[in-house]
Amino acid sequence: MSNRIVLAYSGGLDTSVAIPYLGKMLDGEVIAVSLDLGQGGEDMESVRQRALDCGAAESIVIDAKDEFANEYCVPTIKANGMYMGEYPLVSAISRPLIVKHLVQAAQQFNGTHVSHGCTGKGNDQVRFEVGFLNQDPDLEIVAPARDFAWTRDKAIAFAEEIDLPIEQSTKSPFSIDQNVFGRAVETGFLEDLWNPPTKDLYSYTEDPAMGNAPDEVIISFEAGVPTAIDGKKVTPLQAIEELNRRAGAQGIGRLDMVEDRLIGIKSREVYEAPGALTLITAHKALEDVTVERELARYKRLIDARWSEEVYDGLWFGPLKRSLDAFIDTTQEHVTGDIRMVLHAGKATVNGRRSSHSLYDFNLATYDTGDTFDQSHAKGFVKLHGLSSQIANKRDREAK
């Protein structure tokens, strides 16, 4: 066999079927690479063994939880990364890390091809393949679900035909992707936009209507990075995990949205991201206190553009790198504490403090001790509105 195919292996139906299928179609051997991104659920050793049982020549599991949290989740928090103002880029930020490790494995094992389990309808094909082309353009790319016109029912039939060791749960009609930053569910009955999500779709969150007692939490940041929960020092990974547990118990982080995919179609997605959304909410609140007004206004535009670049699979692109540099400069003073109440599906900020705060009590107060000189305001208002006043005078006279 001359071909060696390095496959991004999730342990699910599509990538399990891909192992024998790719071996047959490309007359080669498959090296399965799985990343532990804190997705929980099945033991990663079971995932590794399943790849071997499905015919992989090698099966590698990489513990990338801290790398993912530090180098992918933290930049997303700093950028308040939310595609369309809602989706915290749960899957989008994991793809460049998977690409990085697949390329490294291809170099280690003299791989000729890299492969993924994405279809031709989704965004992930773009994220993977643009990443491969940026990291090692000499590798050939193959996507069996797209290139060989696989459907889920065909994949299930093929698995049963050759008696692949696939658990019944992986034959679910839903497509599920998850990591420590969140969980994404699509397809199945969700493709009818009128159908509401059912309780069994959720795994990271409890029903917000359960009536759990409110949970007050203090999240501390240093230069935009979460560093403590309730005064206890934590790593970024620990911060996300702790808030997944506490915010998830309150039903925080559920999203049901129709998003604009890069390829031009609209797609319904159900997400759970309790830790991610809680941290981004807290981070935004601290920026409100510590980032100067004009910089904050411009950063909101940059945050939206950063989110689009990442969603569109351009993590390794020059614009995204430059946006990272800008965002990092804005985080110099984003240090302090945010107090929040987690309850009934909402993370509500009710306290803020920072040694870098731009909030001046003596300027803001309406009580005795006010140092704001109101005599300056009248002239400021006149000058601020002067250009529009002149334009409106012209337009009235022109009628």
UniProtKB/TrEMBL annotation:
The keyword Ligase applies. CDD domains: ASS (cd01999). Coiled coil: none annotated. Gene3D superfamilies: Argininosuccinate synthetase, chain A, domain 2 (3.90.1260.10), HUPs (3.40.50.620), Single helix bin (1.20.5.470). It is an enzyme of class 6 (ligase). It comes from the Bacteria. InterPro entries: Arginosuc_syn_C, Arginosuc_syn_N, Arginosuc_synth, Arginosuc_synth_CS, Arginosuc_synth_type_1_subfam, AS_cat/multimer_dom_body, Rossmann-like_a/b/a_fold. ATP binds at residues 8-16, 117. It is found in: Cytoplasm. Pathway: Amino-acid biosynthesis; L-arginine biosynthesis; L-arginine from L-ornithine and carbamoyl phosphate: step 2/3. Residues 174-390 form the Arginosuccinate synthase C-terminal domain. Keywords: Amino-acid biosynthesis, Arginine biosynthesis, ATP-binding, Cytoplasm, Ligase, Nucleotide-binding. It holds the Pfam family Arginosuc_syn_C. Residues 4-165 form the Arginosuccinate synthase-like N-terminal domain. One of its GO terms (cellular component) is cytoplasm. Its main location: cytoplasm. Its EC number is 6.3.4.5. L-citrulline binds at residues 87, 123, 127, 175, 259, 271. It catalyses: L-citrulline + L-aspartate + ATP = 2-(N(omega)-L-arginino)succinate + AMP + diphosphate + H(+). Homotetramer. Belongs to the argininosuccinate synthase family. Type 1 subfamily. This is Argininosuccinate synthase.
